[in-house]
Amino acid sequence: MKVRVANVEFDNVTMEETVARILEWVRQPARPALVCTGNLDHLVSLQHDPSFRAAYQEADLVLADGMPVVWLSHLQRGTPLKERVAGSDLFWELARVSHETGTRLFFLGGSPGSAQRATDAVYRRYPQAQICGVYCPPFETFGTDEEQSHIRSLILSARPDVLLVGLGAPKQEKWIIANREAVQVPVSVGVGGSFEMAGGVIRRAPRWMQQTGLEWLYRLFQEPSRMWKRYVCRDLPFFLRLVLSTMSARRNPLGR
Q1: Cβ–Cβ under 8 Å, residues 188 and 107
Q2: How far apart are CA 171 and CA 151, in angstroms?
Q3: Half-sphere exposure (CA, 13 Å, Cβ side) for 22?
Q4: pTM score, whole prediction
Q5: Structural domain includes residue 21
Q6: For residue 219, which of 242, 192, 189 has the smallest C-alpha distance?
Q7: CA nearest neighbour of 32 among 13, 58, 11, 12
Q8: For labelling, which of 44, 71, 107, 194 has a CA lying 20 to 30 Å from the CA of 242?
Q9: How far apart are CA 252 and CA 232, in angstroms?
Q10: Does a cis peptide bond (omega within 30 degrees of 0) precede residue 237?
Q11: d(CA 38, CA 193)
Q12: What is the tens place of the pLDDT at every residue in 20-41?
């Protein structure tokens, strides 16, 4: 079942259901699947980025990564989303599954060194995890044909079951759509800053802030110069407009 929020179709699944679906695709791959982890910032970008919208429309699973998305689903009429399924939590669930089942993971992207630090953190917690490849493409040469060919060659040689791509949105989703047929990985997931969080490069907000939708505020305090424009100037006004329009539509379902 899907729930439409701000013109985006989210899959109404729990974390357990998400992991089960990914494992099913790994066991019985039909075509390379894309998993998007949608948050409020994605909703903003989707308004004016046609190729990003196209990636979401082609996605096989769209998760509600942010609490604002879940809140909006509860404000509108109809069935709300069951829960938040954060990409940074899904990262650890897939690491656990890899430890238990031998599912092969490949980490692509992240800031320099963060994917390797995330790998080390995974092995400390799940020593039998199967991480078959780790690569952080150089920012300066990422767009060249030579670098793109190198990335595809690394992934093809590693033969992962799940490709975790931490290039940031919308870059990671666009890259997956452009390359998923070439690399032939059963499942690719855009995980944003999950490598940095797992590796301790960025501290994640306390659990109570995650559950109350204040994780963005914690990030803002950590990186004010980088996050101010995104969170305060762009995302927050957009969210408030969505709340007002959603509540208005609920009071006047026929537009009267």
Answers
A1: no
A2: 15
A3: 32
A4: 0.94
A5: yes
A6: 192
A7: 58
A8: 194
A9: 29
A10: no
A11: 13
A12: 999 999 999 889 999 999 999 9
Residue 7's CB is within 10 A of a number of other CB atoms, namely 10
Each residue's pLDDT tens digit, 149-195? 999 999 999 999 999 999 999 999 999 999 999 999 999 999 999 99
Strands 8-11 and 2-5, sheet pairing: antiparallel
Which band of pLDDT confidence, cut at 50, 70 and 90, is reported for residue 248? Answer: confident
Output DSSP code: residue 130.
E
Mean pLDDT, rounded, for 93-102: 98
Q: Are strands 162-166 and 104-109 parallel, antiparallel or unpaired?
A: parallel
Q: Which residues pair with 130 in a beta bridge?
A: 104
* Tokens found for residue 123: 């092995």
Report how far apart, in Å, the C-alpha atoms of 129 and of each of 45, 189, 225, 228 are: 34, 18, 36, 37
- Token pair in block for residue 14: 């729990």
Whether residue 256 lies inside any domain: the answer is no
In a domain, 73, yes or no: yes
Closest CA to 87 of 242, 165, 192: 192
Beta bridge partners of 33: 187
Does 244 reside within a domain?
yes
Q: ∠ at Cα 3 (37, 66), nearest 5°?
A: 35
Q: How many domains is the chain built from?
A: 1
